[in-house]
Amino acid sequence: MSKSGIAIIGIGEVPTRIMPERTPWDILYDTCMDAVNDSGLDKNDIQGVITTSPQAQPRLTSELAFGKLPEELGLEGCRDCCIVNAGGAGTSNCLRLAGQYIESGVADAVLVNHVTVHSTISVPELIAFFGQAGVDLQWEYPFGTTYNIVMGLMANRFMHESGCSPLEMASVVTALRSWATLDPNSIFYGKPVPTPEMVLESSIINTPLHKRESNVLADGGCAMVVVSAERAKKLGKPAAYKLGESARYFSGTTVVRDSDKVTNGFKVTAKEAMAQAGIQKQDVSIWNCYLAYPLAHPIMAEALEVAPEGKGGQCFLEGRMSFGGDIPWSTIGDAPGRGHTGSGVSSAMYVETARQLMGKAGERQVKDCRYVYQNTAGGSGFNNIVTIWGREPNE
């Protein structure tokens, strides 16, 4: 049995779209019941429900926090439920808590879920929420240092220090979109993949970031059914087994964040999680990196030693991380490829990790997928949580 003790045995997901007519509860009903059906369990076998908190949706958050979901789904066997908020790291913590439920005997099967509907939130509300996210409201926000500004500052610094060119940075979008165009759940499904030159031709949002290097807010949701690794093995179904985990905290405010500490945190968490899983870097089939903005992908590639130091951008430009390349990377295209559903992007990444290990990824399926590196980051990147997932449990 794996040291971490849990496995994902069922997944459900709806396409990420801009569809205001599709309510949050429509998405919750569909994704949760699809995940239960995919698991082969009866809905009344679900004894725990853990929800990743929706961002910028206070009414929905209140309904879920007050325990409405098990009742709405008619989960007669449910013993407990809760909602977890750690921004983009929320799903990692939902899975941690699911493991605790299972280990302590509270629940044999846990439903982990997320939903976001951005399209029904007014533009002023969205601006107010994302304009204040990740910045110090007393010392930075009054002077115009919003989240997008911070991302531009980070990109400028990395490009200056590493020599990463604008064309190399733009190629990250090309790589991510090459996966997204093949993903039926992506907002960019079936759409032409922009070349790096096309990315650079789009208007500047904040130097050096262009429009096509920024995220598209959208609506989406997904769900997973989690059981013990031992039970998953007995069921004999394709599953994703959690084999290792590590985490590091950086800072809550981006403008005081030590970039060297972050890079070192990326390195250490990967090594610790892989050591716990009993694997090495060369064993990883997919690097499923959740980073929200393209600029962080070359940084992560170098920190993970997947790309040589100073060559992260070049590896993307060469197509090595694109679909068909030799380094399968963020196989739903991260937020720039999937469409940004708040904390739900990391939820979708976990679903993709399970999908690949179960052999259900269709045209995007990575051949002989055995181990997947998965990371999440909370809030504006206050931490990094790494988990290693495998097709089989560690004995």
Automatic annotation (TrEMBL):
InterPro entries membership: Thiolase, Thiolase-like, Thiolase_C_2
Transmembrane feature ranges: none
Any one GO MF annotation of this record: acetyl-CoA C-acyltransferase activity
CDD domains on file: SCP-x_thiolase (cd00829)
Keywords: Transferase
Record domain Thiolase C-terminal: where: 254-391
Protein name: Acetyl-CoA C-acetyltransferase
